[in-house]
């Protein structure tokens, strides 16, 4: 029986060629030819501010926490339905986490709850563009401006996705908040194995971001000839990746349009094929009018944990690897004792009921067509048992 994995990294064919070129250039330690080519691509293609490749999205988020000078006692608001890296970056600086619930129609943060969570200790709002679908950034930025807060976009899943303001202006996700973090992990649309990027849209943070990125030194300025020697200027760490990682990433960026077109085709086939299961208690993804779909993932929301289990088991029996996703951070063993006790029902519902289906560049239409009747039959079984 053929087994269809949840994810399979896609190679364009140029990765090893560019890696060899990076080696031949004689500089593979980072911030060389390919790092700078990647930076230019993102800044010119998406209108991002200063871009800095990092070894992971986790590192980019940790840089953001350093740049915002998060101190013990500061509070940051973030969704509970997210990966632990979103939270850890701020926990490491001593922040108190204030978790917001997800939206009833989408796993992203419930924007209407945010104002009630703000107080004099609040320093930042961290939004997560779940599945590459935009949070309502106009509302978030208006709140931030009203209360003097910073906004960090966790755009780990959101490459090549956009938000449309009420004025009609369209902006790439990652270009709106003061800071943004991207992931190029092998499960993402554009990959480098491990890897990430910090985007600095607020000019006040640009110079310090580069220093933090270079272990707390002004080494980058030295190599540009702006200073005659470099030294220890600030806190920092070894956040920048090697040229080998950057070369791999640049090969992916050259094929971004092709990759995105194929992923969107797969997403649409799933959506159209699964419309019939909505009557079986299954909810399909919702894309708000202000958001675009970058086809990062295709998820469904079951009516119950039992129904989800039936679907995952039925697909697995036929060789298709479907998975659930995040576990509520406010209920985690580490943070539950520190949580303020508020119920976050939508977050818990997604934790119990959300299913992700296989989605990768080489997934063929026949495999998708084979999955749909399995999902329909198992959804009916799970609904009957429920």
Structure description:
The chain is built from 13 helices and eleven strands. With 386 residues, it is of the alpha/beta class. It has two domains: 15-253, Aspartate Aminotransferase, domain 2; 257-385, Aspartate Aminotransferase, domain 1. It has a seven-stranded mixed β-sheet, sandwiched between helices. Helix 2 runs parallel beside helix 9. The longest helix has 21 residues, at 365-385. The mean pLDDT is 95.
Blueprint of the fold:
Elements: H1 15-24, H2 33-46, E1 50-54, H3 57-67, E2 75-79, H4 84-91, E3 96-100, H5 114-117, E4 122-128, H6 137-147, E5 150-154, E6 162-164, E7 170-172, E8 179-183, E9 196-200, H7 206-213, H8 219-223, H9 243-253, H10 256-274, E10 298-301, H11 305-317, H12 345-353, E11 354-357, H13 365-385
Parallel strand pairs: 2-3, 2-4, 4-5, 5-8
Antiparallel strand pairs: 1-9, 6-7, 8-9, 10-11
Helix pairs in contact: 1-9, 2-9, 3-4, 3-7, 10-13, 11-13
CATH fold-level assignment of the largest domain:
Aspartate Aminotransferase, domain 2
Corresponding CATH architecture of the largest domain: 3-Layer(aba) Sandwich
SS-derived structural category: alpha/beta
DSSP summary, beta strand count: 11
CATH-defined superfamily of the largest domain? Type I PLP-dependent aspartate aminotransferase-like (Major domain)
The count of helical stretches stands at 13
Radius of gyration: 21 Å
Distance between the termini: 31 Å
Biggest sheet, spatial arrangement of strands? 1-9-8-5-4-2-3
What is the residue-mean pLDDT, rounded to a whole number?
Answer: 95
The major beta sheet can be summarized as: 7 strands, mixed
State the order of secondary-structure elements, H for helix, E for strand. Answer: HHEHEHEHEHEEEEEHHHHEHHEH
Broad shape: globular
- CATH C-level label of the largest domain: Alpha Beta
Question: Helical percent range?
Answer: 25-40%
Give the percentage of residues in beta strands.
Answer: 5-15%
């Amino acid at each position: 029986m053929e087994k269809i994995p949840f994810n399979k990294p896609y190679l364009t064919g140029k990765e090893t060629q560019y890696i060899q070129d990076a080696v031949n250039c004689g500089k593979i330690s980072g911030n060389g030819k390919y790092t700078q080519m990647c930076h230019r691509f993102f800044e010119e293609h998406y209108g991002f501010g200063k871009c800095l490749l990092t070894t992971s999205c986790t590192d980019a988020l940790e840089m953001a926490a350093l740049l915002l000078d998060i101190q013990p006692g500061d509070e940051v608001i973030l969704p509970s339905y997210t990966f632990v890296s979103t939270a850890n970056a701020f926990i490491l600086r001593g922040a108190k986490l204030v978790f917001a619930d997800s939206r009833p129609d989408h796993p992203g943060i419930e924007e209407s709850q945010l104002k009630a969570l703000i107080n004099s200790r609040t320093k930042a709002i961290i939004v997560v563009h779940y599945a590459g679908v935009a949070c309502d950034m106009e509302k978030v930025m208006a709140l931030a401006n009203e209360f003097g807060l910073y906004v960090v976009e966790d755009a780990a899943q959101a490459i090549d996705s956009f938000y449309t303001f009420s004025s009609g202006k369209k902006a790439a996700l990652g270009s709106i908040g003061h800071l943004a973090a991207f992931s190029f992990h092998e499960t993402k649309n554009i990959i480098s194995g491990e890897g990430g990027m910090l985007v600095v849209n607020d000019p006040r943070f640009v110079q310090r971001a580069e220093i933090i990125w270079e272990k707390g030194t002004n080494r980058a300025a030295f190599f540009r000839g702006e200073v005659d020697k470099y030294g220890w200027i600030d806190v920092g760490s070894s956040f920048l990746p090697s040229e080998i990682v950057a070369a791999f990433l640049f090969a992916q960026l050259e094929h971004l349009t092709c990759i995105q077109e194929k992923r969107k085709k797969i997403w649409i086939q799933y959506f159209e094929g699964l419309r019939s299961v909505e009557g079986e208690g299954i909810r399909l993804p919702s894309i708000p009018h202000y958001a675009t779909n970058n086809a990062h993932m295709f998820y469904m929301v079951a009516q119950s944990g039992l129904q989800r289990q039936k679907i995952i088991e039925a697909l697995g029996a036929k060789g298709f690897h479907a998975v659930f996703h995040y576990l509520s951070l406010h209920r985690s063993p580490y943070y539950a004792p520190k949580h303020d006790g508020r119920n976050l029902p939508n977050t818990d519902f997604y934790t119990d009921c959300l299913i992700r289906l296989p989605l990768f560049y080489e997934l063929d239409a026949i495999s998708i067509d084979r999955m749909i009747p399995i999902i329909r039959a198992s959804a009916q079984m799970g609904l009957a048992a429920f």
